[in-house]
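Limitations

Structures in this collection are predictions, not experimental determinations, and the ligand pose is part of the prediction. Treat each record accordingly. The example that follows, with alpha-L-arabinofuranose as the small molecule, is included so readers can see exactly what is and is not provided: the inputs are given verbatim, and the output is the predicted complex.
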Amino acid sequence: MTNQIIINVDVEKGTINKDIYGHFAEHLGRCIYEGIWVGEDSTIPNTNGIRNDVLQALKNLNIPVLRWPGGCFADEYHWKDGVGPREQRKRMVNTHWGGVIENNHFGTHEFMLLCELLECEPYICGNVGSGTVQEMSEWVEYMTLNGESPMADWRKANGREEAWDLKYFGVGNENWGCGGNMRPEYYADLYRRYQTYVRNYGKNKIYKIAGGANVDDYNWTEVLMREAHWLMDGLSLHYYTIPGDFWLGKGSALDPRAEEWFVTMKKALHMDVLISKHSTIMDKYDPAKRIGLIIDEWGTWFDVEPGTNPGFLYQQNTIRDALVAGVHFHIFHKHNDRVQMTNIAQTVNVLQAMVLTEGEKMLLTPTYHVFEMFKVHQDATKLDVTVNSDTYELNGEKLPAVSASASKNASGTIHISLCNINHEAASSVNIDLRGFAGDSTKVTGRILTAEKTNEHNTFEQPDNVKPVSFENFTVTNNELTVTLPPMSVVVLTVE
Ligand code: AHR
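Predicted complex:
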């Protein structure tokens, strides 16, 4: 059977918010330290302490927004320990992540510099679990108040005259778990209280994000929306793709088995169900869809690489991760009326990372390449797409093999992204570009694929998995016939 895709080029479905391509970097393992921050005295080339190779790689992704400092770390982080002369900053134990010493050398000023260099919006997550209302309020004052005030004066004394622009602020993280083990009713009350003092100074207008549900905890969403919806701009949701069991064994990132591949895809596709159900609850209180569903932690979570610190969450990244990223983006696009931002966990050396580092070496992961290929969708107009896909079957279970999304940019160029999650069979796809008035013979493509289910990049062979030019399609009038190899991500450009 041939897969049928209909793209109604003249039926526009809103904008694909660029923030859907957001990131998350936590003080966890080697994400911040080593992965991003090496310090000004490092032999690794750096800009004010931020390593240049990683910076350049990330700049190429057009990262729109970066979440920091956690995660679980956020609810133990006391921002005042991370400003002022670095050698005088307080040292603490990072109890959540490996029990290592955190020297606080990467703090507010360093994070804001990173965002300036990446030209992205900062998204700061405040401490509700172990912090005070005053501490949170003063952090916002420190960052965003221009003029005279105790915190603004302190910022200036620490070398930054102008306030920063800060759009996104999260009021706690996973407050049902590492952020305080709270009941939703209790957190909803704390959210109402803490957010009161997250002030807008001058022209800075903060988009406030309430800590949201874990996976399918629909009651959490119901209670937060019922008790506080008018006080929030966004409500978060966390869902990781874990092929195994979180506590009993998540599975190896490099597992070559077809079963592991299949169950990973099945769990990745579950994101669609979660968004639909949480959105239905949100619709009840916010039918106009003012409040964004902010999926500020998502991605694969495997067992750590053998021999690495279990608290560092370091895992390899294969073509399987690339497909997980691709199908997630298709799901996020589908829900662009409610999903306003997402943040993959995490940017460097942790979980489903974009780049991995080892000393001065760096490699780009297959996931990186999907973010790079899909960046054409950022802030583009979503087009109406219908996909009739073949099924992908294993041991009697069925999944749709092909997913797709299409968008049109400001100059009228159309980009079509396609994923074939089938690990062993190619898919032939017929694309009907209905209403396309241009010269559809001008089609170019790029593909990311691999021969083996666990193919990945290493420091010795960093280009095993990388995008190449794709020409396996024919064009007749407004119809494209494309052959997608097994395990492939394709982006077509139609002009
Ligand atoms: O991303 C790793 C951790 O996963 C985060 O710190 C936490 O919020 C989540 O449980």
